[in-house]
Amino acid sequence: MINEVTFLNNSWIWQTVLIGILLWVIFIWKEFSQFGTLRFWTKSAIALLAIIALSMIALQPTIPIKKKGIKMALLTNGFNQNQLDSLKKVHKKLKIKRYENNHPIFDNSSTSDSVFVLGNGVASFDFWQLDSSYVNYLKGTIPTGIIKFKYDKQPTVGESISFKGLYSNSKKGNRLVLEGPGQIGLDSVFLISNNEQEFELSTKLTVEGKYLFSIVEKDTLNNNIRRDPIPVVVSSSIPIKILILNESPTFETKYLKNYLAEIGHEVVIKTKITKNRYKYEYFNSNQKSIGKISKKSLASFDIVILDYNSLKKLNKNTLFAIENSVKEDGLGIFIQPDNNLFRLKNGIGSFDFSTTKNLQTTFFNQPKIKLTQYPYAFKNEFRIHPIHRNKDSKIISAYKRLGHGRIATTVVGNTFELVLNGYANTYQEFWSTLIKKIGNKVPSAVKWESDAIITYPDHPFTFKLRTAIPKPKVKTIDGFEISLLENINLNNTWTGVTYPKNTGWNNLNLSLQQDSIASFNYFVSDTTHWQSLYNYKRIQKNNRNFENFSSISKQAKSKQLINPITFFILFLICMGYLWVEPKISKIS
Amino acid sequence: MSVLPNNILNQLKKRWRLKRWLEVCFYVLGFSLLSYFLFFNSFITISTFVIVTLFSIVLIKPLKPSLRDVVNYIDRHLKDVEYSSGLLLIPEQQLSNIAKLQRHRIGVILNKKHNTLRSPHSLVRGSAILITLVLISLIIYQLDITISLKKQIPQTNATEIVFTAIDSVKRDSNPPKLKNQQITITYPKYTGLAQVSTTEMNIKAVEGTELSWKLEFEGEIADVTMESLENSYPMKFVNNTYIRTSKLNSSGFYNFKFSDKLGTSYVSELYAIEVLPDKSPRIEVKGIKQFTSFSFDQNKDILLSASIYDDFGIHDVYLVATVSKGSGEAVKFREEKLYFDDPIPKGNKKLTLQKNINLDKIKMNPGDELYFYIEALDQKGLKPNVSRSETYFAVIKDTVSDQFAVEGTMGVDLMPDYFRSQRQLIIDTEKLIRNRSKFSKKEFKYKSNELGFDQKVLRQRYAEFMGDESEMGTAHEENEETHDHEEEESNDDPLAQYTHNHDSENEHHLVEEEKDLNQKKDPLQEYLHNHDDPEESTLFTQSLKSKLRQALNEMWDAELHLRLYDPKKSLPYQYKALKLIQEIKNSARIYVHRIGFDPAPIKEDKRLTGKIDEVTNYSKKEKLTQKDEFASVRLATKRIELHLSENNIFSDKDILVLKNAGNELAVIAIKNPGKYLGTLQELKKLIEIKKATLSSLKEIQKGLYMALPTSKPNPTKTYMHTSKINELLLKELDNHD
């Protein structure tokens, strides 16, 4: 019991104790003449009691008390009236309070031992207020609308961007329409089921810049029911520098080079014509010295494409240089296969293959288009990462990592036949994915992350920042600095919170060396948008937060101040005794 | 049950009136329906309804039949009442006793017979008219014959040109107003379309149409120009109106611009001109096959009928025929223009013509070929649209020049000329039969045998093409040494005197060989594609091969009968063989002769020497990146997004970007004006005024985005952030690899 006593003025405890002892010592010294008598001992004890009472008045002790059965229902947005009614039935003295953001939940006087939170829940920044209460979270109904939504926030021009989501309580017949810049309809999907429905909308990006796409729900009469903005920052594409080494001219290389050079990539080709005679081709590129391949000459390329014969004929030094470039600079290698490659057991180009009888394969998503295949298949070992799969989900092209770089190959041969058969788009799709996967990456000093699609004015917007800069300083658009919190386990990872004022595009700036600035764009919109998603997230958060409460089954206790009058009366009695006692003894 | 007579009268009256009302309804309904389907206009329908109702009430008088009329009607139609049903109308008290009696009697009769009374009506006529009108309405609705009243309705304001002041600061308090706008469209004469005047500024017209714009203004104006795709044309001021005339050549956009005396400029919206090209005539030929062949003695008529369609009228139609004579290097062509049998009326949109071509009339001989096609011209000015039909072929079969036609496609004639053709054989055989009496028996037999030999040579020659062993060489040699053999072999053969037995040795050989074959039965035979076997040879298709085999069989028979000195019997076989060969010849035309590949001669002294002195390194530098045709459109889309979210003011640089974007967009918009006209109009306005509402900005952006083509899949470099932890992981992976 005594363990549970705490003092409100905990910080004064030493001073009070010292003064108290001092007072008592003075008192004992004053009465020391009567030492040894009963009177002395009684008086000392009474004086100690008085001093303790006095110091208690100063320290204000509290004792924990069991709350009486006062229960409270906290109503948040989206609460269910039926739940409230049945609660009222069970708990007659139920106190009801409406929740408001950032306002105190309990008045000074009112404390309740258990709180029922109804509806979508309290904001995460108000969780602390309920820390001392036993909370029972009765979640509201799952909101109608999009409750999960995912997309690539920073895509590149020419890419296909897809928006995936989950729609809850969908109404049959309504449509979700993806609208692009200028509210142009790009894609749409019908809502079929009457409960939850996953959907995916996609479009090809044709222009760079920051845009506001939107997802619009339309009813059967084409009226807009709701419109939610989707901010997308489309960055321009960066051309890739490609070196192709061939032991002999092939159609495969001819078609590949035409495709890559026409869309603006730098392509340099070295083809052997005959012994010690080469054909050098430079597309969209200046002449480079590639006669002898070294780490230095490879530094100006992102990807090297070479056929197996070229790989075989590379001397030790060159091979070493290539391997180093891959490991350290992240160079990508693609090996154009031939039958010998599949039997290779070790070295840079070795992958594990098993033989198969198939000489034809297809693409995973286009099972009608046939492709020529070597009679080998990738062994599904954990070292390799698939790039393409066929319709049976077997890997048909894959890469393995080597340091920073990647080495890829495929079991598909003669892909140029796709172009000849009129499937130019499939051909381009194949090579585009492959090259993008293995290509050298541009190192970026900063990486911004944020979970939210949009944020609301005056609401906290949390962002994560990864940078190697020692003490990053992030400023808002108005020039205010945001204090950052470094992750205790992962250094170079920082989090920050800002409260945007204005709607529209906002940005955060991080100044780097040489006056360059890394910016992060985010979109602020009024609170009418993305409500279903916002509410769903809130329900999830509340669920997670209050789930722990019930599992611990913490009996909520509150501390009550012991009324100082008690100590004062005690003090008065003690003082009275000490005042009266000499007089009585004189009389007696 | 008896009913009071007065009630009967009242009932009759009611029924009579009801029927008249019904008739009125029929007419009203019928005419209202008709007017509705004719005009699709509720006002007219309602007025028709009212008018017809009034008229029919006046004419039919549904309220007219009174009790008096009923009584008169009964008197007239029911003899039993003895013309005294009028008594029923008179109160009983006023009647005499007899009258009362009569009245009672009539009452009884009426009670009995009132069911036979039918009030007079013309419901049949009414319903007939209603049905007719409904039918007419339905037909009108089906055929979509609606009399449009738009011509009578005054022009709505929607098409009126709206001018917007560019410089809003110096605006005149009373800006000049457009009083009148008009375009006169004069279609090219040949189209036969009347001149049209309209106030609609978006124009669709046929190529070559003359357009004349007339604008009349209220207030003082400095000048008016018409702007079209970067160019501006001043308009002439004549008789208080501004006029410009132009001939339509290509699709495009235009707008008007004028400035008042204060120097303020006003700009109109953008309007589209769409040129409809005059289509080429369409020709359909019926009644003939692509290839027609005639034999020499057939009636060589080609009857063809052709239907020609054109959107504005056909000017001329004729046949272009080419006759080719001879073959090889001696071929000669003769081209001729043939007209159809009927004269061609000019300017018709549809023509059906017939032509009979007689090959004899155009002086064609056997072996000649005729190629012809139909050419049709429309009436379009100096450069008419011409279209031509497919080419048709007609041939008169030439049976005399009986070359083996498989060779027909080759430049060199490979057939030796020392053996007689089947045709020649027939002629000779016929000659032999004719001159039989002139020859001695031995001579006749000898000649017949000779022909048999020739028949054999011919057969073998053809058999070679089937893959049979060639016996030509031996046969030829034997031919030269005929007489020696004859003497040697004459001993055994009673016929030896009359025959040349060239075959015996050979046949002997053949039998022997066959025996050999039988002995060595090849186990692989079933699995092989045996080219040696004539039956299996793949020189010709199956049908061709069987025909040739048939021809060879016929030749066998022909030879047999010739050798039996019976040329008469042999003739039918020869004819059959000839016919078959002719057929083969015709079908073989489409085959290309199998020719071997002749490689260029190899210089042996240079071969495999491994000298590569003349081979040098080769270097090529090229820029293959294609220019982005929509660079400004992309930039403009991006800029507008910024304006949408941040509301910047349009700078001069922005305006330049927008102008360029407009030009880029116009290129596609010309092909598809309906889709992009709105965007171009808004864009033009934005460029001139440098201001736009949010909705119009969105409209422009939408149009621009729509115009952008989907780009090819394009791999791109991605950004990657490396952190210490990643590095550490990679290092660890590397160490443990």
Largest interface: A-B, 73 and 53 residues
Strand content of chain B: 15-25%
Work out the number of β strands of chain A: 36
Tell the overall outline of chain B. flat
Low-confidence stretches of chain B: 149-158, 402-418, 471-493, 501-520, 590-594
Largest beta sheet of chain B, briefly? 8 strands, mixed
Query: For the terminal residues of chain A, how far apart are their CA atoms?
Result: 43 Å
Count of DSSP H/I helices of chain B: 17
Number of helices of chain A: 11
- Tell me the quaternary state: heterodimer
Overall pLDDT score of chain B? 76
Strand-helix topology:
The complex is a heterodimer of chains A (588) and B (737).
Chain A: E1 6-7, H1 13-30, H2 38-59, E2 61-66, E3 71-75, H3 81-90, E4 95-98, E5 114-119, E6 134-139, E7 145-150, E8 160-168, E9 175-179, E10 185-190, E11 197-204, E12 209-218, E13 224-234, E14 241-246, H4 251-262, E15 266-274, E16 277-283, H5 295-298, E17 303-307, H6 308-313, H7 316-329, E18 332-336, E19 353-355, E20 360-362, E21 370-373, E22 376-378, E23 384-389, E24 395-402, E25 405-410, E26 412-413, H8 416-420, H9 424-438, E27 442-443, E28 446-449, E29 461-467, E30 474-475, E31 481-482, E32 484-486, E33 493-498, E34 504-511, E35 517-524, H10 531-552, E36 557-561, H11 564-587
Parallel strand pairs in A: 3-4, 3-5, 5-6, 14-15, 14-17, 17-18, 18-25
Antiparallel strand pairs in A: 1-2, 2-36, 7-8, 8-11, 9-10, 9-12, 12-13, 15-16, 19-22, 20-21, 21-26, 23-24, 24-25, 28-29, 29-33, 30-31, 30-34, 32-33, 34-35
Helix pairs in contact in A: 1-2, 2-11
Chain B: H1 5-39, H2 42-60, H3 67-77, H4 97-113, H5 123-143, E1 164-165, E2 177-186, E3 196-198, E4 203-206, E5 210-218, E6 221-228, E7 231-234, E8 236-238, E9 241-247, E10 252-260, E11 265-267, E12 271-276, E13 282-286, E14 291-294, E15 301-325, E16 332-338, E17 348-358, E18 369-378, E19 386-388, E20 392-396, H6 422-434, H7 441-466, H8 472-480, H9 482-489, H10 504-519, H11 542-563, H12 567-588, E21 618-622, H13 631-646, H14 652-671, H15 673-689, H16 694-707, E22 719-720, H17 724-736
Parallel strand pairs in B: 4-12, 14-20
Antiparallel strand pairs in B: 1-11, 2-3, 2-5, 5-9, 6-7, 6-10, 8-9, 10-11, 10-12, 13-15, 15-16, 15-17, 15-18, 18-19, 18-20
Helix pairs in contact in B: 1-2, 1-3, 1-5, 6-7, 6-12, 7-11, 11-12, 13-14, 13-16, 14-15, 15-16
